[in-house]
Amino acid sequence: MNEPIVKEEVIEEEFNFTFKNGEYVEVKQEEIERKPENLLEKEVKTEAIDIFEKIESDDEFSKDVPKVSMMKCEICQKSMAKKLLILIKLKIDQTVLSDFFEIEGSLEAIPPYVCVSHIQKIIDDNDGKLKSAKTPSEKRLRLFIRKNKKIIRAKTASRRTCQICQTIKDCSGLYKIYSKSIRIVLMIGCILRGTHSVEQAMFYVTNEKGDTCYLHCKETIDMIFENLGVRNVGEFLKSTPLIMLGLMDIAKKIDSNFTGGQFILAFRRLFLKNQKFESNL
């Protein structure tokens, strides 16, 4: 008996409602048109809530932002990107490392990884001193240095161009940015600093090459904090949508479809990425 009523409510499209004073009330169309700033405020608040409740499962960022493979160095027990570590496969190499360092972890771990910096120190301190190696330990060390010099050279050979400052740098100092939203946030920072025009920003956002210096991530974070008058990410998340209107005006010039919710999520991702990078320095 109630079925016709239910169908009529489902297909109704001419009314807008909001939750106010404990109940849903109708918002007249002319009120929405008369106060467009309310739309942005509602949009940012709604999307921010949804985003932070489901941040780990967000489709756009789960596919656009690469997962960084983190491993632990068995000498110092610090976690870092796998590309900054070397896998120690041979017992003879484990013996050499044990001669030079106090092992906080265990080289018996499977697989044991060690910081490139530890191995580089052994090379710097001993390379060129073992031309006439005679003892078994000296011969082990000479082989260790010869082999790992090639490994480190291969790891550091790859260099790319930062798409913001056009400087050629080691890949270890670059962030491969796949997310269009994070690129837009970075360009907001560049425009605020006066280093890029809107046209240059649009080129960067649409360019398939996303290599970017970590330095620019920090510069953008600081510039956005300064623009909003906040000191940290906690205060940023408490910023009102009206305060963010200036930043959104810039973003809309780069991409008219960019939303306040996307800005909040992208900035948070950028902040966490930069924080992780700085903790590994």
Tell me roughly what share of residues is in helical segments. 40-55%
Global shape: elongated
Number of helices: 13
> Order of strands in the sheet with the most strands?
1-2
User: N-to-C terminal Cα separation, in Å?
Assistant: 69 Å
**How big is the Rg?**
27 Å
Tell me the number of structural domains: 2
Number of strands: 10
* Oligomer category: single chain
SSE pattern: HEEHHHEEEHEHHEEEHHEHHHH
* Percentage of residues in strands: 5-15%
Which class best fits the helix and strand makeup? alpha+beta
| Largest sheet features | 2 strands, antiparallel
Protein name: Lin-15A/B-like domain-containing protein
Domain Lin-15A/B-like: 159-278
GO biological process, one term: negative regulation of vulval development
InterPro entries: Lin-15A/B-like_dom (IPR057432), Lin-15B-like (IPR040129)
Description:
The strands form 5 sheets. Strands 1-2 form a two-stranded antiparallel sheet. It has a two-stranded antiparallel ribbon with strand order 3-4. The chain has a two-stranded antiparallel ribbon with strand order 5-6. The protein has helices spanning 3-11, 29-34, 36-53, 59-64, 91-100, 116-126, 136-156, 180-193, 198-206, 214-228, 233-237, 245-254, 260-279, and strands spanning 16-20, 23-27, 70-72, 79-81, 85-87, 113-115, 159-161, 168-170, 174-176, 211-213. It has 281 residues and is of the alpha+beta class. A hairpin with a 6-residue loop joins strand 3 and strand 4. The chain is elongated and about 75 Å long. It contains 13 helices and 10 strands. The chain has 2 domains: 70-157, no CATH class; 161-279, no CATH class.
